[in-house]
Amino acid sequence: MSDLITWKTWLEHNYQAQQDLNAVPVNSAKQALESAEHRLYDCLWPIAPAGTKVSYPPTSEQVEGVLSKLAAVMNKNVDVNNRARYAEWARQASMIKEAKDDWENAQADLEAAIREKQQAEQALRDVQKQMPTPSPKALEAIQLEIDGRQQQVGKIDATLNSMKDSASIAVELEQKAQAASEEVERLEAQALLGDVDEAAKGQAATTLAKARKASEKAAEQAEKQDAAKRGLEKMRSGLHEELADLEALSKGVGFEVGKATMEAQEQALIKAIEGIDLETLLANINAARDQANEHAPDGQSYDSASMQVKLPLLYAVSAPDSIEY
User: At what angle do helices 198-275 and 2-23 cross, to 10 degrees?
Assistant: First the structure.
């Protein structure tokens, strides 16, 4: 069971590390920076004084150059006659400074997001290094736990199905007690009229006493059975929750076991290929083809031979999806 707890803890940590990495807002920070670059460029290029270069994205030097030239123009034209133009230059300078601040903030946000991503990637690597050994025995242990709980659920279901309807039994006994009570009342009424059957009265009284006792006992048993039923249903609910957790654990461990098995088989394949000295065999084939091509009739030749091992994803090597020889 301790191995299952270890796997459960590791899978939770691994999932959380993946979530933390996915949550790092690098893409949104890049988009925000691109938007800020566009805005800054749109503010600069229409009003950049002659001879001032503005590239995309703008550089800090280019921004400062435009602002410096605007300031110089404003300083030369502070007289009353240029008041309207001065106000427009001041507005343009303010727009550029505001766009520049947004741009610098966006750069800082992206740098922070990149650092956060690097930390999250390292945290994920650290967690993955702590992964328990992904062996089939781990899956077998989980399946044993699943089987045990399924058996418990089966026993509870069988017990619940075998329980009689306590409410209907209690009602039936109460009806018998009521009928006995009515019989006693009838005989007592006859006694008052002078028509007395002492044996019948005694029998009716005994029947009533027994019926009332059975009714009381049935009510008590029904309450106990209802309590037991609630307890069994609660146990079954808890077992279903445990089964859901174990099945999720089995899926997570099974994936890791499958990857480990796949990697081992890929390594075996590569080792087998390397063991037959495929590269030398192909080199000999191509040397023979080259020799044949030297003497081949015009228009005839052999292409070089090669082989490719292609899989959707290779875990055993650093190549993305294939190995070529």
Answer: 70
What rounded mean pLDDT belongs to the chain? 80
Q: State the CB neighbour count (10 A cutoff) for residue 246.
A: 21
Indicate whether 35 pLDDT > 60: yes
- Higher local confidence (pLDDT), 224 or 26: 26
Distance CA 237, CA 64 (A): 69
Return the half-sphere exposure (C-beta side, CA atoms, 13 A cut-off) of residue 54. Answer: 20
Question: Quick check: pTM over 0.70?
Answer: no
